[in-house]
Amino acid sequence: MKPLHIKNKKALVWYDAGTGKHVRYGVAIAKKLRSLNYNVLLTTRDHRDTLSVASFLNERFSVYDKYDPTSLLTRLESGARRQLAFCKAFEKNPPDIAVSHGSVDACRVAFGLGKPVITTVDTPYAEAVHRLTLPLSDYIIASNAIPKETLQAYNRKADVIGFDGVDEVAWIKDFKPRIKYSYGRPLIVIRQLEEKATYAKGKIDFVALAKKLTKLGKVVFLSRYEAIPAKNFIVPKEYVDSASLVAQADLFVGVGGTITREAALQGTPAIVIKVFQNQQVNDYLAEKGFPIFNTQPSNTFKLAQKSLGHKQNVKHLLDRLENPTDVIAEIVNKIDKTVTHNK
Question: What is the extent of the structural domain holding 264?
Answer without folding.
Answer: 187-318
